[in-house]
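Lay summary. Proteins are chains of building blocks that fold into shapes, and those shapes determine what they do. In this project we predict the shape from the chain. Here is one chain we studied, written as its sequence of building blocks.
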Amino acid sequence: MSNRFRIIYLILSLLLIAALTVGCNKEPEITESKNEKNTSDSSFPLTLNDQMGREVTIEVLPERIVSLAPSNTEILFALGLEDKIVGVTDYCDYPKAVSSKDKIGGYSEPNIEKIISLKPDLILATDIHQKPVEELEKLGVPSVVIEPEDFDEMLASIEITGKATGRHKEATALINDLKARIKEVGDMVAKIPTDNRPKVLYELWHTPITTAGPGTFVDDIIQRAGGENIARDANKAYPQYSQEMIIAKNPDIIIFSHHGTTGETAEDILQRPGWNSINAVKNNKVFYVDENLVQRATPRLVDGLEQFVKIMHPELFEN
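And here is the predicted shape, written in a compact code that computers can read:
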């Protein structure tokens, strides 16, 4: 009888060990599944309207984003999405960290094959990218079009990008900060008498002289900064002016954005023949500003606005 109990005990022990072993082997699979589920974003899938009035549905939180414009790239970086950006254009140059990203070609004609090879799950485009957007959407890659035309729409583009990428809180915080800075400038400028608003020439290029007229960010910035754009009465956004026209308009301040080997310096502008009668030249008020601060639809437009105020109304900062 003693041997019989020993055999039964041995069998029960072996069965218990086998059950424990099977249980341990299955546990890692369950844990991994739970961890994967926890990384998802509860706001997805979501449907939003982009700035071309298109209804876009994004099924899952994007992890691989391709930007088709420098302005879009800047917004993505501003929202802390550097690690999720897998492709940018050859012209995306800000911030410096963008230099390490794969390039997908030029701005107007991106390389579709290169984009596809990066396996994106979200494309951030502009209105000139209709053809590539259509091709990519046929492959199941959602595309959001960002095309702001003024300050308010620039802020709206940040909000749309934040929603599309799961960074709505970060977008809201950034927008609130930018609005506060814009308001601060507005409050300062509101105190400036109308007759103390300088006439401003913004020189985009020098041969031929090209400026920024109505409907441009530059025109908006000049007005917001307490100045009068001498090209505001032009019949197009980027008119070309003759030397005689500029002399006749007699700007008080000249702000230019071309420089380097192909552009000119402030000294070159001051030495132009016949310009010594222009107030800006007589008073040595010729200034350089980075064009990307006033022409690229990004949060840095507010940096450009603040620079213009300091140039046009230095008296506001004397105290």
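What the prediction tells us: The chain has two domains: 46-178, 192-317.
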